[in-house]
Structures are given as C-alpha cells and as structure tokens.
Amino acid sequence: MSLQLPLDLETGDPYSRDQFIATTELAALLGVLLHPGQWLSPHLILLGPAGSGKTHLGHIFASQTQGRFLAAEDTFTLDPASLESLPYVVDDAEQASEDTLFHLCNHVHKSGQQLVLLTENQPISWDVKLPDLASRLNAMRILSLPEPDEDLLIAILNKLFAQRAISPSPDFIDYIARRMDRSVSAAQKIVTELEHYANGRAFNRALAKSFFDHEADLSGDASVTTFDNLR
User: Treating both helix axes as pointing N-terminal to C-terminal, what angle do 184-198 and 205-219 enclose, rounded to 10 degrees?
Assistant: First the structure.
C-alpha cells in the first residue's frame, strides 16, 4: 500500500490528504495512526523533528476521526468541563498545560475516544511537574516520524517547484538534495530562496552551484562549496 508523507503547501488547505507526497516507507506508522480502533490504549505520542510532518498528520487524524485539533496555547484556556466525546490532538504537547493534558488523558479513556500528542522531544525530557501526568506520559506508545530520505526529498522538491510552475533539470534537483538539510521545512525554505535567486535564469545545475556558492560567501562557510566531487 502506498501512503504519503505530509507536505505543507502554500495554496489551498495545507493539511489536506491530497497534499501528501507518496511513500511506502511510513506505511506501518501511518497505518497505526489512522486506525485508532487497533490501538492498545487510547493514548499515542507522535514524535518527530521540526518539519517532519507531525502537525499535518495530526490534522489528518482529527479530520478522519472528526476530532478536535488543539495548539499548545489552546490548552491554557480550555475548560475541562466543556470536553466533548471525541478524539483530541495536541500540537507541541511539551508546551501545553499539564492540567489540561491530565484531564484529556482521563477524559478520552472514560469516553472511549483517543488522544494524540505531537512533540519534538521524548516525554521524559519534558520536566513534567504533575506526577500522575508523568506516569501516564511514560506509559504511552510512541511513534517516531523520521526525516525524509534522499529519494523522498527529491520528490518533495519536485512537487514544490511544480506548484510554482517551475520545471528544473534533474541534475539541479539532485545537486540541491545532496546539500540541503533533509526536512520538509528545509525544502520549503530553499525552494522559496532559489525562486527569488534565479531572477529569470534557468533552473539547472549551474544555478544550483551558484546559489550554494553565494550562500557560502554570505555565511563565510567554505565547506558549503566543496561538493563538486558529488555528482
């Protein structure tokens, strides 16, 4: 089964399922997340670095289950008495209200719903003050979302450029993919920067090399320019 990696887009709904990049590598992880009826408990932690797609996955889960998506700041004004019988997703959970997280843990357990916590950090590093919450967090199943590999990063870059009606040469994409940070957020950033840097020039390997040389000159990091042997 071919599943997809979340990709935030600049047009339309950035968190819709049709904005995914296809991949089979994450099939097991996404299969678990999107089938809560198969979970062993109502609580799940989705762990991954910035830009790996946690927020997008959280929105997809909330949409599929008709749940509620909460940003961390929302939890500080949420009235526990107003909780509904539906799944909840909390983004940046390590920054959320501990009291609210504790109430959510208990609420979904009693109501037969689910709670998904999105975070960049292992719960053990959250410095939780409520012992009961800490014990619940430590017992939760964790699904780890990796950074995209090079093949997936190339697919992401191609789609981002296609959205801008840009058709770069294959060696242009390959040159970039070998030299940039492997994350969705890094791909979004570098595509925007390259679009501005090109200023009407063709998107080929010469432009890519010129861009990285330019960035190296600005940063004073000569190591960025020493990639000619990678072809």
Answer: 100
3-class SS letters over 185-226 = HHHHHHHHHHHHHHCCCCCCHHHHHHHHHHHHHHHCCHHHHC
Q: Are the beta carbons of 207 and 198 closer than 8 angstroms?
A: yes
Between β-strands 88-90 and 115-119, what pairing exists: parallel, antiparallel or unpaired?
parallel
Q: What is the pLDDT of residues 139-191, one digit of tens each?
A: 999 999 877 778 878 888 998 898 889 999 999 999 999 999 877 778 889 99
- In this structure, are residues 60 and 15 in contact, taking their beta carbons and an 8 Å threshold? yes
Classify 40 as helix, strand or coil. Answer: coil
Q: Which of 60, 51, 33, 64 is nearest to 156 (CA)?
A: 51
| CB-based contact 208:156 (threshold 8 Å) | no
Structure tokens at 205: 């390997």
The pLDDT score that the predictor gives to residue 221 is: 52
d(CA 117, CA 125): 15
How far is the CA of 215 from the CAs of 164, 179, 205, in angstroms? 22, 12, 15
pTM, entire model = 0.73
